[in-house]
Write a structure and sequence with these properties.
The protein is about 40% helix and about 20% strand. It has 25 helices and 26 strands. The strands form four sheets. Strands 1, 2, 3, 4, 5, 6, 7, 11 and 12 form a nine-stranded mixed β-sheet that branches. An eight-stranded mixed β-sheet has the order 15-16-14-13-17-18-19-20, with helices on both faces. Helix 17 packs across helix 22 (about 675-690). The longest helix is centred in the middle third of the chain and has 25 residues, at about 280-305. It is elongated and about 95 Å long.
């Protein structure tokens, strides 16, 4: 028996950014036959542009007023599915949401099914099972409560679904007339569930049909969920009591209405007392309440004995318009840092890869760290599931002992392992993590997923350039040596290894005395965004500007850059030297002094910009003439290709992966590593400063190199194929 066709209806108004996320989330659904209907209210923001982006993959309709029930009925009228499921414009479904809801509709008595809803933390419940009475009061019950016996006409209590995670059989909706337009906001779905039960239909819950609700601000509430107006909700409450409670017990109906009025007035007073709202805001809310209650009672009198909703059940909907889900892999990437909080190389690489994979239709989760004092959360942002986590000491002892890892690395691994088990519920095919800090070493033996380790600078390769490690014997013994030994074991155990350069493979063999089996290695050079796309042209200026980007430490060649800058400025006083990416603290000052460049910060033509945010850094690339990358070791050299993206020639030390990225005489100049490196760098910078034609030729070559080899698309083309291979060859699949 084929699964029922489902129409997903989203009702929206002035929430363009959230609507885009909801539509992206629908691409992750694993259900064979559904369409998407978006009903746009009188929006004044960019909603129309978002809908244009998604045309012709969705059905579109318009609602001329701010009335949720009217909008819902317009959506039902446009729906051609056997089932209609409602999703708020600030919510994202679990990939199995529709599949779990659909299972219940095999029973012909079922008229409505609702799932459980997770709040905006992604970790706590907003709503699970709720039972309502005929006065519109919600009663929360246990997850194990059996709501089925309540499904009988005339019941005083009945299951009530949350609008953002509700579904209805089309035949049932048409029988009871859909939604009642008197409910402009609040209790609209509660009223519908009650009328369905009274008509003989059953309403049930499905705990595994999950929706993640983001709680966006609206014309009704502020971002802090404080009411802007109480008029629509008060009118709905009074109308509901008059329609459903008063016929059975008028005295109780009056008491319930008074209790509600008193409760809201007390809440408004509390908000003012605690300075959540002003006195004027409280007065406005109190007045809204009075007017709303009066209007609700008047609406009930006006409708008389009419019991049904306002759906036009006669109009035929447009044909079913199947929505195209992504259909890609379930991919989980691990990186403790992630932009914009962290802009380091691994963090940037992870973000670029994750976003491009999501754009291609893959279901992508990123496990990353929290900021200081930030709570853990799971949110769908810009097409990605972002899991922000903190290390987990409980249970880390076993990881530390089993894998012989330092305590802090084991604690992060423990948390990653536990979250990976949760992500499997979304459908997980591939787990990708970096060699640095071995962030998911605890998952290396998992046969149910394809595990991929990406090679970046490791502890073994960084060690020669980290004199501060050797200066701390205990750290060297308990951290560095343990990590180097664990890295060697991981290289031997990883089913697939991503190498960003050939140099890193040679360096690994030199550092560990072993190299990964070539059949397990995929060469995947880094890529970067196009820094010229959509960017304004740099302002015209004279002179000659050199840009250094990197942490102010020896491995990044900060001391080499500083010493070379002195020589450049002595020979070419009109030149400028700009340093970005680090802080000029005591350690950096000591590095300058050791390089014979003390006082460089006060020198004319020298600027230290500090750690820049991404837009400022990109502008710095565009505004320079030459990028200097004198790193003593880079597994690849992301700074070099970022400069090429901006159309700037690169002067680099011929060390590590940089010798593969920069091509001598085509897109930059390479300087041999060794005792004469400072003089070589200064000579290369001076040559480019004095030869504008050479500079222009190399700049054009840098841009060509970027477009041919280092775009995000080129990088992810390789990675996507590698992840597909990892998913297809994972041990559990082979065994199956």
């Amino acid at each position: 028996m084929s699964p029922p066709r489902i129409s997903v209806v989203i009702n929206t108004c002035d929430r363009a950014a959230h609507l885009r996320e909801a539509l992206r989330g629908l691409r992750t659904l694993r259900y064979p036959a559904f369409e998407v209907v978006v009903v746009n209210g009188p929006s004044t923001d960019e909603t129309a542009a978002v809908l244009e982006e998604w045309a012709p993959g969705i059905k579109r309709a318009d609602c001329p007023e701010l009335n949720l029930s009217v909008s819902r009925n317009i959506g039902i009228a446009a729906a051609a599915g056997e089932i209609v499921a409602f999703l708020d414009d600030d919510a994202v479904p679990h990939p199995d949401w529709l599949a779990r809801l659909a299972e219940h509709y095999r029973d012909p008595r079922i008229g409505a099914v609702g799932g459980f809803t997770v709040d905006n933390t992604g970790l706590r419940w907003q709503a699970r099972k709720t039972v309502c009475d005929r006065y519109g009061n919600a009663h929360h019950v246990s997850d194990h409560f059996d709501e089925r016996p309540l499904n009988r006409p005339g019941t005083p209590f009945y299951p009530s679904l949350l609008g953002t995670n509700s579904s209805f059989r089309m035949a049932a909706l048409r029988q009871v007339g859909g939604f009642d337009h008197a409910f402009a906001y609040l209790l609209d779905e509660t009223d519908l569930c009650l009328r369905l039960v009274d008509a003989g239909w059953h309403v049930v819950y499905e705990p595994e049909a999950l929706v993640y609700h983001q709680f966006a601000a609206s014309h009704i509430r502020t971002p802090k969920r404080i009411a802007r107006t109480l008029y629509p909700s008060a009118a709905s409450k009074a109308y509901f009591i008059a329609r459903h409670g008063a016929p059975a017990n008028r005295g109780r109906a009056a008491a319930e209405l008074e209790r509600y009025r008193r409760e809201i007035l007390d809440a408004n007073a509390w908000l003012e007392q605690h300075r959540e709202i002003t006195g004027a805001h409280r007065a406005s809310l109190d007045q809204d309440l009075a007017w709303g209650l009066k209007e609700g009672e008047a609406l009930a009198r006006h409708r008389g004995g009419r019991a049904g909703g306002d759906l036009d059940a006669e109009a035929a909907p447009p044909p079913f318009h199947r929505f195209a889900p992504g259909g890609g892999l379930g991919i989980c990437m691990v990186s403790q840092g992630f932009p914009p909080r962290v802009e380091a190389g691994i963090a940037r690489w992870t973000e670029m890869v994750a976003r491009e994979l999501a754009r291609r239709g893959h279901r992508v989760h990123v496990l990353t760290g929290t900021a200081e004092d930030e709570e853990e959360s799971v949110r769908f942002e810009d097409g990605l599931w972002l899991h922000r986590m903190t290390p987990e000491a409980e249970g880390a002892e076993a990881v530390m002992l089993n894998l012989d890892l330092p305590p802090n690395i084991a604690a992060w691994n423990r948390r990653v392992w536990r979250e990976v088990q949760a992500v499997k519920g979304f459908g997980l095919d591939v787990l990708s993590f970096p060699i640095w800090d071995l962030e998911a070493a605890a998952c290396l033996g998992d046969p149910s997923i394809g595990v991929v380790m990406s090679l970046h600078t490791s502890y073994a390769m960084a060690r020669p350039h980290k004199p501060e490690w050797a200066a701390r014997p205990l750290y060297e013994h308990f951290m560095v040596r343990k990590m180097i030994a664990a890295e060697a074991r991981a290289l031997a155990a990883a089913p697939m290894v991503l190498a960003n350069s050939r140099a890193i493979l040679a360096d690994l063999q030199a550092a560990y005395g072993v190299a990964p089996d070539p059949s397990r290695v995929v060469l995947a050079p880094h890529g970067t965004e196009d820094l010229l796309e959509g960017a304004p042209p740099p302002a015209r200026r004279g002179g000659y500007r050199v840009l250094f980007v990197g942490r102010f430490e020896p491995r990044k060649g900060f001391d080499l850059a500083a010493a070379a800058a002195l020589r450049l400025l002595e020979a070419m006083p009109e030149a400028e030297m700009v340093f970005a990416g680090g802080v000029l603290d005591a350690e950096a000052e000591a590095a300058l002094a050791a390089a014979g460049a003390a006082g460089l910060a006060g020198r004319r033509g020298v600027r230290f910009l500090g750690v820049l945010d991404r837009p400022a850094l990109e502008a710095a690339y565009r505004d320079c003439d030459v990028a200097l990358v004198p790193s003593r070791y880079e597994s690849f050299g992301l700074v070099a290709i970022e400069a090429m993206s901006a159309g700037k020639p690169v002067v680099a030390l011929a060390a590590g992966g940089l010798a593969e990225v920069v091509t001598e005489g085509e897109d930059g100049l390479l300087v041999p590593d060794g005792p004469e490196a400072v003089e070589g760098i200064a000579a290369a910078l001076l040559r480019l400063g004095r030869d504008a034609a050479l500079r222009a030729r190399l700049a054009a070559g840098a841009r060509r190199s970027f477009e041919a080899k280092y775009t995000v698309k080129a990088m992810v083309d390789v990675l996507e194929a590698a992840y597909r291979r990892a998913a297809a060859t994972r041990p559990a699949r082979e065994a199956a």
